[in-house]
Design brief:
The complex is a heterodimer of chains A (509) and B (337). Chain A has 509 residues and is an alpha/beta fold. Chain A has 18 helices and 22 strands. Helices cover 33% and strands 25% of the residues of chain A. In chain A, the strands form five sheets. In chain A, strands 6-9-10-3-11-12 form a six-stranded mixed beta sheet, with helices on both faces. In chain A, strands 18-19-20-15-21-22 form a six-stranded mixed beta sheet, sandwiched between helices. A four-stranded antiparallel beta sheet of chain A has the order 2-1-4-5, with helices on one face. The chains are: A alpha/beta (509), B mainly alpha (337).
Chain lengths: 509, 337
């Protein structure tokens, strides 16, 4: 094990309304793979963004190769030898490998590019990694795994000594993962320090030397990977006991309202079967990219599906688009409110009215303003949306109130099934509780509530039944009152085996 | 809600896009008065009547283009559809077809262009600039082909002097209540589409897809059909302008309507219609068309060269949008009352 190359002590970082990092310590040594672990929102990415200069820390000290840095910028971080390989690769897909590697620092003599030299240089670093890619190939023609290698080669070409990899395996096949791991081992043996962020805990035994665990923006523990059992790791990641924070109402579970049978839609929705009942909230838990959002979109008819049947109160219904779903009484409050939920340039009134125009307009499609006013005022009152009036643009409201508009526009109708996709993301605690109350209210009214959330305590606190998804499949169904976070997490990480067990060396210590 | 206590004026001002529209009206008055002071003829009744008639074309084009712009798209085929309509109607009439039937056929042909635009953009997701560039060339080509690559004869030669005069008078030369028919026709079309945009489900859907097409789709809006409707409105307005032009000339001109799509963009933009979609009022388009025509008219009256006219108009369009951008960035934060 080598010298300490990165040392972060007491790092704090706040965003408006959120303390994203609270006194975090982190240490990386040369020639090791440090796995940075934690749930979604634990602060892993934020910490690494501080290290790579994307965010400036509020307080704390940051030492790289023995040199103390004040406010890092992306450029100083790069010069200090830090490189980050993002989850979504940042490549110009129409350019060649060499062009991408030297983008912004092209070799040239008197305005003329020296392509041959750049290609030669690119080949040198690709060879160093032992990957067989021609520097002249167009990046967009290469598979993601190869693009990732190019990113790594690019990092090496700027003399990076510390590589941060954020979920590098999420889009790779098992063979490609093997290749990546070989490269990581090679880099390690050359003395590079590697920070490895992954949700796939089963990968750790193949690659991690040490681990650092974070939770809620705080440093929890670190140590040698072999000193922890998997249960300990999960317990440290999950930690808290805050069920009581969530208001729960008890209802009699009634008759079946909605059933989904054999739903298939792309890679992330595979053979989904479940039912929703009167008087219960069904939580959908899982890691990011588990296919929960895709499932809601397939049900709502936004994305095309390969197969699947829907039954509403025993009768089969055909959903070929959101319009059909809405008419049948199924509504969706989508995940990304800026992208899918709100018309930000339109007023609160127009946003709330939009999906309900069929009720507001007469049979000739002419708007009835007083009816509209009535529905909108009801929505604003029921959800206590804080807005100066109905005519302000939706994007002038706070995040929580915007979310209430997204939800509120659906509650004007008499729906039978309400699907919430991450309804509390990015909103403050008070607004969260209001959304919970709203879901409870729907539950009491006998409306089936499907609730997708990545925050486990929330799912456990609000849902009656929890369906866990992983990699596009339903991997478990649990009673919220009896389950534990560890149990959910183990289902949420129940990936189909991607890695063969042949190389069990945990990093070659 | 505190809205009830506010005066009518401040409530009007709260309507989105109203400020931009009113600004354009104020600009209109300033420009008109300024030219009037330079040449008293500008204030003459005759000039006002001419102004109203000439602005009608820009108003119609502006309404069509505004509909499309509010959906976040653009229609480059407007001018060509105008030319095609002028040629089809004049060709049919100069060959003796009943004017009513000729008008009906012309409208149908124009609407087909609108449906094609709507489907290319809405259904096949072509960039609107490219899709309507294509239909622009095709419809202009049709304008050339219908009468064998030449302008038509006088329509009276086919349907007789009486019917020919009736057609020309109806669309261009006759007056009702002392104002030229052309303006009344444009006004009726304007009012109908104003109502459609402001007071109906279709109008709301048009704003919604212009603001956020994903959110609109997830709210159950039929994006393809709504886009098509906007292009249909644009095509219909173009057809009416085509008929006006063939009535004005008494014949069909293959190059009629050249560049009109851009006049439509200018009218809308001066009146505060956002080329990015989601915002704008037809009232603003009305003001924009009037500003446009008043400028053209006024510059003529003060004997400015054509080159100077173009430059002034170009500068005004850019200034109008710049003003809008500046006002908006200044108004980004909600005012606390």
């Amino acid at each position: 094990m080598g010298d300490v190359v990165v040392s972060m002590k007491g790092i704090c970082k706040s965003f408006p309304g959120v303390k994203a990092l609270d006194n975090v310590n982190f240490e990386l040594r040369a020639g090791e793979v440090m796995a940075l672990l934690g749930e979604n929102g634990a602060g892993k990415s934020t910490l690494m963004k501080v290290l790579s200069g994307v965010y400036t820390r509020d307080s704390g000290s940051l030492t790289i190769f023995g040199k103390e840095y004040g406010d890092l910028t992306p450029n100083t971080a790069r010069d200090a030898g830090i490189a980050i390989i993002h989850q979504e690769l940042n490549m110009c897909s129409h350019l060649t490998v060499a062009e991408n590697m030297f983008l912004g620092r092209e070799f040239k003599s008197h305005f003329v590019l020296k392509n041959a030299e750049m290609e030669q240089e690119a080949r040198k670093y690709l060879d160093e990694l032992g990957v067989d890619i021609s520097p002249r190939q167009i990046v967009g023609d290469l598979p993601v795994s190869k693009q990732q290698m190019i990113e790594i080669a690019k990092a090496l070409s700027v003399q990076a000594k510390v590589l941060i990899m954020d979920e590098p395996t999420s889009a790779l096949t098992s063979r490609e993962i093997e290749e990546l791991f070989n490269i990581i081992r090679r880099l390690k043996s050359q003395g590079h320090g590697i920070v490895y962020i992954s949700h796939r805990l089963e990968e750790l035994s193949h690659i991690a030397d040490r681990i650092t665990i974070m939770r809620d923006g705080q440093y929890i523990t670190d140590g040698k990977y072999t000193d922890f059992t998997m249960d300990e790791i999960i317990a440290n990641m999950v930690g808290r006991e805050i069920k009581e924070k969530f208001p729960r109402v008890e209802c009699e579970k009634g008759k079946k309202i909605f059933e989904v049978k054999n739903l298939n839609a792309g890679r992330l929705v595979r053979d989904i079967n479940f039912s929703l009942y009167e008087g219960e909230i069904v939580g959908f838990a899982g890691l990011m990219g588990a296919g929960r959002t895709e499932t809601t979109r397939a049900i709502f008819g936004v994305d095309p599906r390969e197969s699947g049947q829907f039954f509403l109160e025993g009768r089969e219904i055909i959903i070929n688009g959101p319009k059909d779903a809405i008419r049948s009484g199924i509504v969706l409050a989508p995940e990304d409110r800026k992208k899918d939920g709100l018309c930000t340039k339109l007023s609160v009134r127009h946003n709330i009215a939009l999906p309900n125009l069929d009720m507001i307009c007469n049979k000739f499609g002419v708007l009835n303003s007083s009816k509209e006013e009535k529905y909108c005022n009801e929505a604003v009152k029921n959800l206590s949306i804080k807005t100066p009036n109905l005519d302000v643009d939706a994007n002038t409201l706070s995040g929580g109130n915007q979310q209430k508009v997204v939800v509120g526009k659906w509650l004007v109708r008499n729906s039978r099934v309400v699907i919430f996709d991450e309804p509390t993301r990015g909103i403050d605690v008070g607004a969260k509780v209001e959304i919970y109350h709203l879901m409870n209210q729907l539950k009491k009214q006998g409306i089936a509530v499907m609730f997708v959330s990545s925050e486990m305590p929330e799912v456990m606190g609000i849902a009656d039944r929890i369906i866990v998804m992983c990699d596009g499949r339903i991997t478990g169904e649990l009673n919220a009152k009896e389950t534990t976070q560890n149990e959910i997490l183990s289902f949420a990480t129940a990936f189909e085996k991607k890695i063969t067990g042949e190389d069990t060396g945990n990093g070659g210590n | 809600m505190e809205g009830k206590k506010q005066s009518i004026v401040s409530r009007l001002l709260e309507i989105k896009g109203m400020r931009a529209a009113l600004t354009a009206f104020i600009g209109l008055i300033v420009i008109y008065v300024a030219f009037g002071l330079m040449n008293r003829q500008v204030f003459s009744t005759q000039n006002i009547l001419n102004l109203l008639r000439s602005m009608s074309k820009y108003l119609l084009i502006g309404v069509g283009q505004s509909f499309v712009m509010i959906t976040g798209n653009i229609d480059l085929s407007i001018g060509s559809v105008v030319g095609m309509s002028a040629m089809i109607s004049a060709t049919l009439m100069s060959h003796g077809m009943n004017p009513f039937l000729a008008i009906l056929i012309t409208i149908l042909c124009g609407l087909i262009a609108g449906v094609v635009n709507g489907y290319l953009v809405g259904k096949f997701k072509l960039p609107p600039f490219i899709a309507t560039l294509g239909t622009m060339f095709v419809t202009r080509g049709i304008a050339y082909i219908v009468n064998g690559n030449r302008n038509t004869d006088n329509i009276a030669s086919g349907i007789g002097k009486e019917a020919g005069d009736a057609f020309q008078n109806f669309f261009y030369y006759a007056k009702v209540l002392g104002v030229f028919n052309t303006f009344w026709i444009a006004l009726v079309v304007f009012v109908v589409f104003f109502f459609l945009l402001a007071k109906t489900q279709t109008g709301r859907h048009i704003y919604a897809i212009g603001s956020n097409v994903d959110a609109a789709r997830l709210s159950g809006v039929d994006v393809v059909w709504t886009t098509t409707k906007a292009y249909l409105v644009s095509a219909f307005c173009s057809v009416v302008v085509g008929l006006i032009l063939s009535a004005q000339a008494g014949m069909g001109n293959m190059d009629a309507g050249n560049m009109y799509e851009m006049y439509g963009v200018a009218a809308g933009v001066i009146g505060g219609v956002s080329p990015m979609g989601g915002a704008g009022l037809l009232l603003g388009t009305f003001a924009g068309a009037a500003v446009w025509q008043t400028l053209e008219n006024g510059l003529n009256m003060v004997h400015a060269q054509v080159g100077i006219q173009r430059i002034v108009i170009g500068v005004i369009v850019v200034l109008a949008v710049m003003l809008d951008v500046i006002l908006r960035s200044g108004n980004r934060k909600p005012k606390s009352k």
